[in-house]
Amino acid sequence: MPDPDPRAAPRVSPHVLILGGTTEATALTVAVANRFASGLKVTYSLAGRATPRRPPPARLRIGGFGGVEGLGAFLTAEAVTAVVDATHPFAARISRHARLACAASSVPLLTLARPAWTRQPGDRWLEADDLAAAAAALPGLARRVFLTLGTADLAPFAALSGIGFTLRMIAPPAAAPFPGCTVIAGRGPFGAAEETALFRAQGFDALVTKASGGAATAGKLVAARTLGLPVVMVRRPPPEPGARVESVAAALEWLDHRLLPPDNPPQDPLPP
Ligand code: NAP
Question: How far is CA 27 from CA 30, 33, 234, 248, in A?
Answer without folding.
Answer: 5, 10, 26, 7
